[in-house]
Amino acid sequence: MTEPRGTGVTVLGLGAMGSALATTLLDAGHAVTVWNRTPARAAGLSARGAEAASAISAAVTANELIIACLFDHASVHETLDPVVAELRGRTLVNLTTTTPNEARELATWAAGHGVEYLDGAIMATPHMIGAPEASILYSGTREVFDAVRPVIDRWATSTYDGEDAGLASLFDLALLSGMYTMFAGFLHGAAMAGSAGMSATDFAARATPFLSAMTFGFASDARVIDGGDYTVAGQQSLDFSDLSHIVRASEEQGVDPTPIAAVQELISRQIAQGHGAEAFARIYESLRADRTDGADHARSTDHARSTDSTELAEARR
Hints:
There is one protein chain. The protein is of the alpha/beta class and 317 residues long. Strand 1, helix 1 and strand 2 form a beta-alpha-beta unit. Helix 8 packs across helix 9. The chain is elongated, with a radius of gyration of 24 Å.
């Protein structure tokens, strides 16, 4: 494909994020058409020079490049299905949060209607849009990514993750999973400390430097996982990592132990399969998509040491 003609951009959806995207484009000198199901939300952008479309058909025909930042997967179809014929030959960049399979479905839907499609996942809050620290992941046809990049780079650092339209969503949600699990752990810790009268503010002052320092372990765990040998020296064992005492302490304080109990369940599963002496990172084996049940899932140390790298790669798929 060629780069969308002109500098005009249509932005569909004017929540906090959609408004930030449109504002950044206006500030960069783009002609911007906006549409929202609730028209009043366009008032501020109209005052800054945006063209507010009263109907979705007018919005999608105003420009060759259309940005969707809507509520969810269903809302994309609800908004665009009625005007799909008018989308033919145009480029749709979907920044609506979806699951990977929903992104793939939209890519197939777009291709079937002659619409160029790129899926995106925003790794930023609205106030970060336009700043260097903001990041947006994209996946889909490389040619589309390259063509629209002069526009999308206005918002954030753009990262292309591959032809599979679901990859941006997958990596976005994987990162958010880590974030929310960390937040839940912090809140559980705050509840435990709070049971003895410590304020959440005081707990945060202690937790922030400690948790920040602990993130150095990500790279080490990743090397162990990718290497496939959980017996390498220097790793904290699953037996030593038994967290049942934290679960009991939480219960003793009248605090719901659900966040830490979930981690303990993963540890217990691996210990029950005979891997207590191996690294804590081994709980990855209980989480991975191609896991199997039972003790025979694990690679033994002797097998790992005697298997060449090609076989290890196959085993980890």
